[in-house]
Amino acid sequence: xxxxxxxxxxxxxxxxxxxxxxxxxxxxxxxxxxxxxxxxxxxxxxxxxxxxxxxxxxxxxxxxxxxxxxxxxxxxxxxxxxxxxxxxxxxxxxxxxxxxxxxxxxxxxxxxxxxxxxxxxxxxxxxxxxxxxxxxxxxxxxxxxxxxxxxxxxxxxxxxxxxxxxxxxxxxxxxxxxxxxxxxxxxxxxxxxxxxxxxxxxxxxxxxxxxxxxxxxxxxxxxxxxxxxxxxxxxxxxxxxxxxxxxxxxxxxxxxxxxxxxxxxxxxxxxxxxxxxxxxxxxxxxxxxxxxxxxxxxxxxxxxxxxxxxxxxxxxxxxxxxxxxxxxxxxxxxxxxxxxxxxxxxxxxxxxxxxxxxxxxxxxxxxxxxxxxxxxxxxxxxxxxxxxxxxxxxxxxxxxxxxxxxxxxxxxxxxxxxxxxxxxxxxxxxxxxxxxxxxxxxxxxxxxxxxxxxxxxxxxxxxxxxxxxxxxxxxxxxxxxxxxxxxxxxxxxxxxxxxxxxxxxxxxxxxxxxxxxxxxxxxxxxxxxxxxxxxxxxxxxxxxxxxxxxxxxxxxxxxxxxxxxxxxxxxxxxxxxxxxxxxxxxxxxxxxxxxxxxxxxxxxxxxxxxxxxxxxxxxxxxxxxxxxxxxxxxxxxxxxxxxxxxxxxxxxxxxxxxxxxxxxxxxxxxxxxxxxxx
Length: 678
Known about the structure:
single chain; alpha/beta; six-stranded mixed β-sheet; five-stranded mixed β-sheet; 16 strands; elongated; disordered N terminus; disordered C terminus
């Protein structure tokens, strides 16, 4: 092995649940995954020698609460957890950057167990269910989703009652949703919102649901609904440290929440939704009259003023520094009505641009999922003046009456005006994902939602496709890449190309380095191309825009073989300044990956960059071998050789005559902290 340094690993066998052995660094690829896979199979099949853990029973009870016929089939959950070993150790190592100590002992045990949860949002227009697989640390991923159009609030006379027809539709929908949850072995939690909590017969409806399906339904208050929505948003967007306004327009109500660092500061519910507003103001023909539109706007403005929405939000600015006078730093929209508005606006952009690139140079499909106030205004004008038969076909709109779509857009436009919103991001997660997070917080006392969903999701994806135990090496290479970049930024002759890589781009570079190996899940041959496909086409990278995911995928794609080229359409369609940044990051990643050529994270300790504007020297510092193992320095001759193979590209891109030399561990004067490890 390399220096004979032992690595602890866990062997799982039927006769002996745990046994520790030591293997040399060079044999790292043989450990970890096969044993983890064996353990899951043994647990699922009930192999003798594997005793049942009583703690799981208590967990199921805490998760299930009063959920009637819902059942958690743990064996099914474990058997479905293909290639999903626990990555808690990786997270700790990434956070601490302790690359000198490799310990894979966390690959099994109680923490590796997984279970399934399902949450149903009984909305005024539709019932939405999400099924997730979660682990004992509270991490989860969506494995199934289902939507049932019920129109619970229709036919009840101004939403005062739930009609018998709507009740029957709800019974049928809940039976189907329950069957899906039970088939997957998921614990089911159902929450009802405005249509039920404001109906005169809401309590009777909940009782009838219990009698028909055996499911207990929780009716949440408007404020609690807003809080749960915010919890869901935190799992999808990197807004934890920002003062963020979240708006959710439902069929019967609209929720507002201003949150910061995971705490809701203001939570309000307005008894106006797209269905309620359409029924009150926009009845009649397909195209509403000017009088109807004026009355609709007047009604919304009066309701917002009476509720004091603007006043409550503005108060936030007085409590925190660096918060704009309007009371929030950014705004987020969730759920159907706002998603439909975003889809219409995207279709209008595409038509206006005639399949050409956006004004900022990015292809339309890579645009951020957000829209401006001016675009929303143009949408309302189009919807109110164009017959529905001529509307663009977008997801979600076909399930709604045209008046409901228009009402939702008008309501959102008035919210933009009153709260001085300039632009709004779209969150793919909302109430039902918030219910999942809340359930996990109840069941797992030590669980706290992650403050950095982007870092967590990169770790999750790296672990999911780590079939050859390369994530530790990838982590080490990510640290080395950041050291090289920061070294090029220092001194009086700092590289302008390196300075063009800001903190967010550096984060993407580290993420691309961390994921460069995932294509090996498919095949070693051409694995860089497979990595591009896997990164582009997965649901695990949360908190990244489509453009950021494209950049990460390209960095993994070009970490080996050919450099980015205008011959590749996906690269050529990007704006010139972005193409240059991607090329710069690629040559840095290639060097960083080469500096751990043996994929052990045991050889190179750090890299110092010396440069004077014309020449550059990369001083590569090896790890020290512990005295008990003979002392001295690790042999990094292979890493130095591999790095020298990448110097021609590095020198050409940066315009520096570059050499690589071996340094000494004594005071290398290198800052080893990277963004991903901060």
